[in-house]
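Problem 12. The chain below contains 314 residues. Write out its predicted structure in token notation.
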Amino acid sequence: MDFDVLRLSIDRELVRLLPALAAEQANPQQETVLIDAMHYALLTGGKRIRPLLCLLTAEALTAATVAEMPSIRTAAQVAEAALVAGCAIEAMHAYSLVHDDLPAMDDDDLRRGEPTCHIRFGEAVAILAGDALQTLAFEILAGGRLSALGVSPGAQLRMLRQLASASGAGGMVGGQALDLAAEGRKLDEASLSTLHAMKTGALIESAVVFGLCVHNIEDTGLELDLRRFGKLIGLAFQVQDDILDVASDTASLGKTAGKDEQQDKSTYVKLMGLEGARAHLDALFAEADEILRRRALHQTPLSAFTRQLATRIR
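Solution.
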């Protein structure tokens, strides 16, 4: 499967879901700047990891025997529902990056190889753009498009609850708060894992869970396995970021290299050393692969994408 083609389909859907620039507004100039900033934050670069995981999980379950769909729906309808749901998570992720880059947070001026949103549009507009992207995520999940594609009201509610939980004080925002509080401190492995399971892992786990929800499947055992898979991928992604922060450069990363060291943050490299962090990364991906094998999902594009993620720093 060509993952770049999938990324293009995700980008097209994001454009469709974003508010258009209206010609006639009560205050056209102000509204245009806000929506420009939303488009900039969401569409300028990005690996689209979260919507890809949602799409590929849904596709893997379609191909597996567990996906004997409880309603009369086509595989194309399920795939389109996964695309929409995955884009909701990407909107939430984009909001988090806009706010994370602000002067009061990480104070970064480069994201995805371009000026950060607050550098490009000013701090006030960037904050508002982030706020609007956050609410857009819930609007997408609660909208009629998923219903029209056969996603049950119960499954929509599960996704809304999942995203709210993963994004708030018990998830991403809470993890960001822990990250700020940890500057200048040395965290142990358990504390560091908790921080990143909340800050990075919660939305990645949500993407995998959404791939199950769009099938209207309620299988507690399968959901627990997929949640564990998502947690492992989320943690591995953060370990990779820690490694890349010291082993790569700004041009390759598209953001400021060495930022963690400058801000005296606790990282897996600082805790385990470079080789120890790499060994930990391998162990995380190995466990994730084992889950896919146990669920007979190891010969799918989801498994291939997981292997591609594992080689991101090789």
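Discussion. The beta strands are 110-111, 114-115. Students who got a different answer should revisit the alignment rule from Section 12.3.
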